[in-house]
């Protein structure tokens, strides 16, 4: 079990390899006109996904409040990336980690979680899928006294993590290049990204549009319940998360999973960005919103994870191009990197020290 000094040192080290990700301007032709969409490269965080920010902040907040203490078990439900983040960060802080995950997620996700020493418990559709997995974690917490549940779908610290870090980074990185965002779009898993980033950007600019994105094949947000199946792992997880407030957001954007796969392939093959399927989805959604606002509109999105978590999925298989896809109309030409902001997590050890001392 780490000492106070060791714990503070570990938190400080983690804070320096999570966040402050690059912001790319991606130049492309769409229907014959040159445009640019801006994307935060969240696939360049510690474990290769957007969830590292949330996992670190939730654990930090839990330590400060006293809900998490050294040696406690961390137990969470995930579609993959969150489990990988808690497995890595929890292990780095000296915690045993157990992850409950639906059994239809990619093999890579399960193996990556296990590679960090965490235990994976697979939950089938017959056992209740996501809802069943959440129930199992609650039962485990009631049976054992030293279990901490991050509860990513309902924990307000999830939203706060994205508001305090990525939202501020987006505003500063664009501002350093004299750019003002007109819209932000992001796929919804827990809702933490779109709610947190949206909250910060709306504080800075009240009329900015904030659009949640969902798979066209499974319009959970639009219908209020689970309908159909889709192939964009990490979003539309069978229910509307408690931390997501659609009344605070603009219209829901639907993107086909096939279009998302083709777009992710295009990002890798044309400009060397090896990102996951949800990144392709977000880029297509950003292009759609930019088309609505006008080609010169500054539209920002995120690339949530890398392509290494999809090697056994349809991302690496031939995908037929269908009528209505946006991706075939997009010709990527170049990427430009906006200046990063200074590291903004240096206060983390101070907050922890006030609790631990």
UniProtKB/TrEMBL annotation:
SUPFAM superfamilies per record: Tryptophan synthase beta subunit-like PLP-dependent enzymes
Originating species: Candidatus Sulfotelmatobacter kueseliae
Molecular function GO terms recorded: cysteine synthase activity
Record Gene3D superfamilies: 3.40.50.1100
Keywords associated with the record: Amino-acid biosynthesis, Cysteine biosynthesis, Pyridoxal phosphate, Transferase
Catalytic activity reported: O-acetyl-L-serine + hydrogen sulfide = L-cysteine + acetate
Keyword Amino-acid biosynthesis attached: yes
Domain Tryptophan synthase beta chain-like PALP: 16-305
Top class in the EC scheme: transferase
Pfam families named in the record: PALP (PF00291)
Record-given protein name: cysteine synthase
Family: Belongs to the cysteine synthase/cystathionine beta-synthase family.
Gene name of the record: cysK
Cofactor: pyridoxal 5'-phosphate
EC number annotated for this UniProt entry: 2.5.1.47
């Amino acid at each position: 079990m780490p000492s106070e000094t060791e714990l503070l040192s570990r938190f400080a080290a983690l804070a320096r390899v999570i966040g402050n990700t690059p912001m790319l301007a991606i130049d492309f032709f769409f229907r014959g006109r040159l445009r640019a969409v801006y994307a935060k490269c969240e696939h360049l965080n510690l474990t290769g996904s957007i969830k590292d920010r949330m996992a670190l902040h939730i654990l930090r907040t839990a330590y400060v409040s006293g809900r998490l203490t050294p040696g406690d078990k961390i137990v969470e439900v995930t579609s993959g990336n969150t489990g990988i983040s808690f497995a890595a960060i929890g292990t780095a802080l000296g915690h045993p980690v157990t992850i409950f995950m639906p059994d239809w997620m990619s093999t890579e996700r399960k193996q990556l979680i296990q590679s960090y020493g965490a235990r994976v418990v697979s939950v089938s559709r017959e056992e209740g899928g996501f809802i069943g997995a959440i129930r199992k974690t609650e039962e485990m917490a009631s049976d054992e006294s030293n279990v901490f549940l991050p509860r990513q779908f309902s924990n307000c610290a999830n939203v706060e993590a994205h508001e305090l870090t990525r939202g501020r980074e987006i505003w500063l990185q664009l501002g350093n290049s004299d750019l003002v965002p007109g819209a932000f779009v992001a796929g919804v898993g827990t809702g933490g990204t779109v709610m947190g980033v949206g909250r910060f950007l709306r504080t800075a600019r009240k009329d900015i549009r904030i659009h949640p994105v969902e798979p066209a094949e499974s319009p959970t947000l639009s219908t209020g319940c689970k309908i159909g199946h889709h192939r964009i792992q990490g979003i539309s997880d069978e229910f509307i998360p408690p931390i997501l407030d659609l009344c605070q957001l603009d219209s829901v954007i639907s993107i086909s999973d096939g279009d998302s796969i083709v777009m992710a392939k295009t990002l890798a093959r044309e400009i060397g960005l090896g990102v996951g399927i949800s990144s392709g989805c977000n880029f297509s959604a950003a292009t759609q919103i930019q088309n609505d606002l006008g080609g010169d509109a500054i539209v920002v999105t995120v690339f949530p994870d890398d392509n290494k978590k999809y090697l056994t999925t349809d991302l690496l298989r031939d995908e037929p191009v269908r009528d209505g896809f946006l991706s075939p109309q997009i010709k990527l030409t170049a990427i430009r990197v906006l200046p990063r902001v200074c590291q903004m997590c240096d206060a983390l050890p101070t907050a922890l020290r006030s609790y631990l001392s």
